[in-house]
Amino acid sequence: MRYIIFTFCFICAASFATPIDVRVLDNKGDPVKDTVVYITATNLPRDEPLESKTLVTEVAQDGRAFKPYVSVARVNQTVLFTNKDDFSHHIYSITGPVELSFIIRAQDHEVKKSFPTEGVVAMGCNIHDWMSGYIKVIDTPYYAITDSSGMGQIHVPVGLENADIIAWHPQMNESVEQKLDQQTTVTFELQNDMSPIPKQKSTQAISFYGLSK
């Protein structure tokens, strides 16, 4: 009987989540892909749902590039670094709540990390110095990453107090946020030019650690 009541309450609670469509446009009106959009509030729930506790963000080294270029992870969530190349990478960070510096060998080698506080993890590779990638670490379960049309959707429960919706991308040159009230659609239009994304490839023909590529 307790199981039935619990299941019913869970379904009822989930039904009160409101989908919010978020769109991010640059100052020319073009969509901005890979923007992290997320909700903050003074009464965010502290009990993590099961899916959040088992959630894993994968950051792959693939074709001498971080894929995806921008990732998002929750505080203390597992981030799985994988190597899909047939040569090694040496990952390091220049910002973030935890300093990264580790070698990830070829062929399915994995390294697990997590981050205890919010922040921006800016990453590079000491072997392939053109590689760059970012992890945005947030302390909220309500977030999305925009697609190629600049769109993302966040399912937000009713009753959040002093809620804000924030948009972040490493190439943005401004703070972007709005108060969240009753609206179900939010559009961010940037005022400043975005910095260009660094070219994620090189003509370099030699990799280190005894592996040429």
Automatic annotation (TrEMBL):
Signal peptide: 1-17
Protein name (record): Methylamine utilization protein
InterPro entries: CarboxyPept-like_regulatory, Cupredoxin
Keywords per UniProt: Signal
Native source organism of the sequence: Vibrio zhanjiangensis
